[in-house]
Amino acid sequence: MSDRNVLVINSGSSSIKFALVNESQDEFLLEGLAECIGTPEAVVNWKQNGEKKTLMLDGADHGGALAKILPHVQEAAKGQLTAIGHRVVHGGSQVHEACLLTPEVISVIEANSSLAPLHNPPGLMGIDAALKMYPDLPQVGVFDTAFHQTMPDYAYRYAIPEELYTEHHIRRYGFHGTSHMYVSRKGAEMVGKPVEDSCWLVAHLGNGCSATAVVNGESRDTTMGLTPLEGLVMGTRSGDVDPSLQMHLNRTFGYTAQEVETLLTKKSGLLGVSGLSNDMRTLIEASEKGHKNAALAIEIFCYRLAKALAALSCALPRLDGLLFTGGIGENATLIRKKTLDHMRIFNFKLDDAANQECTRGNGGKISADGHPLVMVVPTNEERQIANETLELLDAK
Ligand code: ADP
Predict the structure, then answer these.
(1) Does the beta carbon of 332 lie inside 6 Å of ligand 1?
(2) Paired residues of 35 in beta bridges
(3) Mean residue pLDDT across the chain
(4) CB 3.0-4.6 Å disulfide test: which of 88, 162, 200, 393 passes with 141?
(5) Which whole-number Å values give the CA distances from 107 to 120, 130, 210, in the listed order?
(6) Residue 329: which pLDDT band, with cuts at 50, 70 and 90?
């Protein structure tokens, strides 16, 4: 049983990201992205055997797009597809681990749609289409929230009246769990520590950003909360603001709830402060050329990240290391340096050459000898979803 293939599907509202993962090969057999689904521009691009391929989807919906992609998946899998693993964002308090997508689990995903309106409904479209196409294949949901279900109540409860928690499930859930789990396990493996006896701070910095304190392989606290808006500064999301901001915008300037949500989730963060871009690479280039607001966006990003990491250290009995991952964490040497410079009392110090070396998928230690360990650990959510899918089948 060491040559199984898992198709990993991550459905967005107008996109489907997919990868065909073989359990014993590092390279994916096929990986790609269908975009603009449901519009005349719908198109899928994928890579197979080092070759890039493109197919127009003629306005297909999620089902139509999958129908066009799947013959190529079958070809790459040589007909040997063992299971499908679906990324699901919000499983609420009911889901603690990967689950077979039974009607009960699907209703849990539906029930949590109000907490993740941008993510759970498109996830369900992908699940529905794949179940119709492969009714006999095991299909597994791997949830972003599941890894954080080990947080203690004093970390996941808000200081608001209890009935909002007991009756309306309002609490901190945390996201990016698949990545935080993968990276904390990989980090332990890289230094030869058993994950059951390891303590990490993990900074996942992509378009969305979150940091997690991981103790003995379990999440003990994380920066995202009820929704993926809480916590760190992100590409277009503000992260933490004074909750009264929303009332002030409404009362004083007449913003509606919808306008406040759009402001804080789509127009804030790096984009809002810089007025230029949500893309860190663009901001670094612009700030080098003297763009003041791009430079300020970078400063706020790093200071807030450092402050959050210091706060998360309260959840750790000791620190074995700080792990950077995600597009920014894996590539932006400047961001890693600036963040650590803010954490003076932790005694972090980078090995500048190693910091420069660890980009574009190269992981490893970037801290100077004699100082607390800092590593770059490239994430691999597709691999983690495939692993959890197969672990679930093996446990049956
Ligand atoms: P997503 O969360 O959508 O998966 P990624 O993890 O790919 O996103 O991260 C995207 C972010 O990573 C963008 O802000 C991008 O600018 C940044 N990034 C990628 N490469 C570099 C680089 N070489 N230097 C700085 N930032 C980078």
Answers:
(1) yes
(2) 43
(3) 95
(4) 88
(5) 11, 16, 27
(6) very high
